[in-house]
Structure formats: C-alpha cells, structure tokens
C-alpha cells in the first residue's frame, strides 16, 4: 500500500538537517532546483499544501496566487516582513515562525557588537597579531558601563537586549508602538531615542512602515559620539544616508548584521574603518539552528495532523 505524503514547497535552500527531516515526512518540491519554476508551478502548483521558507526569503504574493491549496507557511526565522500577512489572513493561510528560539542569540550579538566596537576588540586582535605591540603600546578604548543604550523596538529581542545592557551597567531607553510595563524609559520617537543614545540598537521588524525609518535626521540626532547597531533588517536603515554619516563623521560608527541586498554588501561600507560587518549570523549557532529546524518540522506535522500550527506569527 502506498502512502500519499503531503506536498510541500521549499522556496530557497534550507540547512541540510532540516531538509532531510522534511524529506522523511513530506513530498518536498524544491522550487530553486527546477530549471523552469514557472512550468512546475503551472503543472503542479495546485497540489502544494504548505510552504517552507526562510525569514529573509519570505513568500511573494505572485507565488501564493499559483498555490490555491496552500494553507500553511512555516518560516525558518521570526521575520515576516517578506510575507503579506493581510493576504495570508484573507486566504486563511496559517503562518508559523520560530518564536522564542533565537531571541537570546540575537541579543547576545547586539551586546557583543556593542562591546566589540567600544572596546576595539577587532583592532586589538589585529594589533596583537601583527606584532605592532612589540614596538608600541595599544591605544585606549571606551567603557560601556555607564553609557546609554537606546533600543528601537522593545519586543522579544529588544527586551533581551535591554536586560543584558542593564547587567553591563548601561542606562536603557526604548521606542515601541505600544507602551510596555518595564523599568526602562520610553521615548516618543526615534529621533528622541537617538539623541539619548550612545548606542542605538535596532530590533524592530523590517515591515513596509519601517522602511528607511533610520534616516539622516535620526543619524544626526545620534551624533558624532553615537554608534548604530543593526540586528533587525537592512531595509530599516536608509543605507545612502548611513554611508554619508559614517564618511563625514556625523556618527562615530556602526555595527551591522543585516543589509538591504544580502548577501551583497555595498562596497562603500566595506571600505570604511568605523564599521563592523557581520554576514547576518545573529541566530547562527548550532543549538539555535537545530531548535529552529525542529520548530519548522513540528509546526508542519501539527498542521497536517490537527489542522493547526503551533507557533503562529
Ligand atoms: P517582536 O517580538 O515582534 O518585536 C518587535 C518590536 O518592534 C515590537 O515591540 C514592536 O512594537 C516594535 N516596533 C515595530 N515597529 C516599530 C516602530 N516603527 N517603532 C518602534 N517600535 C516598533 O519581534 P522580535 O522577535 O523581537 O524580532 C524583531 C526583529 O528582529 C524581527 O522582525 C526580525 O526582522 C529581526 N531579526 C533579525 C535576526 C538576525 O539574524 N539579525 C534574527 C531574528 C530577528 P509593539 O510591541 O508596540 O508592536
């Protein structure tokens, strides 16, 4: 007796362990492997019941239109900025995210970058490695304790960043759309938060409303002693304004994990010495990625056995 497995579409490559797990339970179609994806969708789109995608990839509405039977999307990540949630809601498509799994790692990176920038960790490594120490003493760096850290977006990640910053003796303030019950000071808008901050950390979604929310005015308010840390999404920052601000000393520096055109990084950014560049690795630990993979599988198994996903967006 042959068993018919649910048909699942994988849009972009996933980590191999997750791909293997999915293959054990579902009939997986990998869109990126088809020479003619349009032809595949035309012939078999109607039989696809669920999608697996990554936060940085999302799902285009034009693709969803070709999958009339699709009723579940499992996202490997927490960002839903590349999925039109009003369309999924209207079509009663359930969207799952890997909620509460990567929060600590992203917050760790935000604080790691704050420390790395302030304490010149990358420069000191270069200084020691190159043998320069044999002929001269190292320059001084700046303390983080006692400094002000502003968090744009006090959600799960923002709050985890706040707690870590507090433990480092930093003063914390934030912006969010709605008031939160926290001991931290709330600023009315991003410019006010930037003016408060020595370190302005972005932890808000890259939704359409937040596109380029960090512009020349916010950077001017952050000022010549301020540092921008972006662990959110590249589109939240107006990159041209950021590059100008970094080149002209409008702000002191930046540490970035995310970019508008990943994996391509603007060459102007790569040439600057007052930036730390990470290749979008905030959640890239063995432990977290394994839990994220399990979450995607569990959401789909739950959907196909009970009709409900377990960690909705
Ligand atoms: P979350 O719990 O939904 O929190 C998002 C917060 O942002 C909410 O508090 C929300 O306010 C606030 N917000 C939204 N728009 C805002 C605005 N215009 N001004 C001020 N605050 C605003 O999400 P999360 O789990 O913390 O994740 C945050 C984002 O981090 C994700 O959307 C994703 O893009 C990014 N991320 C990046 C990585 C990485 O690898 N670098 C990994 C994971 C996540 P309200 O509570 O009032 O709605």
Question: What bound compounds does this protein have?
Answer: NADP nicotinamide-adenine-dinucleotide phosphate
Total beta-strand segments: 12
List the secondary-structure elements in sequence, H or E.
EHEHEHEHEHHEHEEHEHEHEHEH
CATH topology of the largest domain: Rossmann fold
Q: What is the gyration radius calculated from CA atoms?
A: 22 Å
Question: Which structural class is indicated by helix and strand composition?
Answer: alpha/beta
Oligomer class:
single chain
Q: Please work out how many helical segments DSSP would assign.
A: 12
Round the mean pLDDT to the nearest integer and report it.
Answer: 97
Side-by-side strand order of the widest sheet: 8-7-6-9-10-11-12
Give a quick account of the main beta sheet: strands, pairing sense, barrel closure. Answer: 7 strands, parallel
* Shape, per Cα inertia axes: elongated
Q: Assign the CATH class of the largest domain.
A: Alpha Beta
The first-to-last residue Cα distance is 37 Å
The proportion of strand residues reads: 15-25%
- Enumerate the spans where pLDDT stays under 50 for 5 or more consecutive residues: none
Report what the structure shows:
With 313 residues, the protein is α/β, with parallel strands linked by helices. It has helices spanning 16-25, 37-44, 61-64, 85-90, 103-118, 121-129, 156-167, 190-196, 216-222, 239-247, 267-271, 286-306, and strands spanning 7-10, 27-30, 50-54, 72-76, 94-96, 148-152, 171-175, 185-186, 199-202, 227-230, 253-256, 275-277. The chain has a 7-stranded parallel sheet with strand order 8-7-6-9-10-11-12, sandwiched between helices. Strands 2-1-3-4-5 form a 5-stranded parallel sheet. NADP nicotinamide-adenine-dinucleotide phosphate binds at residues 78-79, 81, 102, 106, 152-158, 175-178, 203-206, 210, 213, 231-233, 257-258, 280, 282-283. The site of NADP nicotinamide-adenine-dinucleotide phosphate (NAP) has 30 residues, from helix 7.
């Amino acid at each position: 007796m042959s068993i018919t497995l649910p048909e699942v579409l994988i849009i972009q490559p996933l980590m191999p362990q997750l791909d293997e797990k999915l293959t054990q339970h579902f009939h997986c179609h990998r869109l990126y492997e088809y020479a003619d994806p349009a032809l595949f969708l035309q012939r078999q789109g109607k039989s696809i019941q669920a999608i697996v995608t990554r936060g940085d990839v999302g799902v285009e509405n034009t693709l969803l239109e070709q999958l009339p039977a699709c009723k579940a999307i499992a996202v490997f990540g927490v960002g839903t900025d590349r999925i039109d949630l009003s369309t999924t809601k209207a079509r009663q498509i359930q969207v799952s995210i890997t909620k509460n799994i990567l929060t600590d790692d992203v917050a760790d990176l935000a604080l790691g970058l704050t420390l790395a920038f302030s304490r010149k960790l990358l420069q000191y490594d270069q200084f020691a490695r190159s043998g320069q120490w044999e002929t001269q003493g190292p320059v001084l760096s700046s303390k983080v304790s006692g400094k002000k850290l502003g968090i744009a977006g006090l959600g799960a990640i923002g709050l985890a960043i706040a707690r870590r910053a507090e433990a480092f003796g930093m003063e914390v303030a934030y912006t969010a759309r709605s008031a939160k019950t926290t001991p931290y000071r709330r600023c009315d808008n991003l410019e006010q938060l930037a003016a408060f901050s020595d370190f302005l950390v972005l932890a808000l979604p890259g939704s359409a409303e937040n596109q380029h929310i960090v512009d020349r005015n916010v950077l001017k308010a952050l000022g010549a002693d301020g540092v921008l840390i972006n662990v959110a999404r590249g589109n939240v920052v107006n990159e041209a304004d950021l590059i100008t601000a970094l080149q002209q000393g409008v702000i002191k520096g930046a540490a970035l994990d995310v970019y508008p055109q990943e994996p391509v990084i603007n060459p102007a950014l790569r040439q600057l010495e007052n930036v730390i560049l990470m290749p979008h690795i905030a959640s890239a630990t063995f432990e977290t990625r394994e839990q994220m993979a399990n979450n995607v599988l569990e959401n789909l198994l739950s959907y196909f056995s009970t009709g409900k996903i377990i960690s909705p967006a």
